[in-house]
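Chain A, query sequence.
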Amino acid sequence: QVQLVESGGGLVQAGGSLRLSCTGRGRSLIGYAMGWFRQAPGKEREFVAAVNWSPTSTLYADSVKGRFTISRDNVKNTVYLQMNSLKPEDTAVYYCALRIGMARDPNQRYDSWGQGTQVTVSS
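Chain A, predicted structure.
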């Protein structure tokens, strides 16, 4: 139904920064909660951050709080994840996801998923 396209991943040294983008194709993201998840090799997918529509409250995993910031640009139909002070343990494939309803905790179900963008943080 909706295509979510992630971009902005790449290779960065520890302590560096990256900004991931998630753009909706074929449907507006207005009114939906948007989340970022990540999955490292050999590990289960984990919640990273989410932003709601009204109000635009945010939720972060403890492991990224204070380092990552999620935001959205309604004109560009895009959600961003600004990642600062990156650590090697942040290395993973990062996925954008859409949820129908409010995002209140990390364990809620999301309805649409992107294909992911790889982030690699070197020591």
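The CA atoms of residues 9 and 119 lie 5 Å apart. The mean pLDDT is 96.
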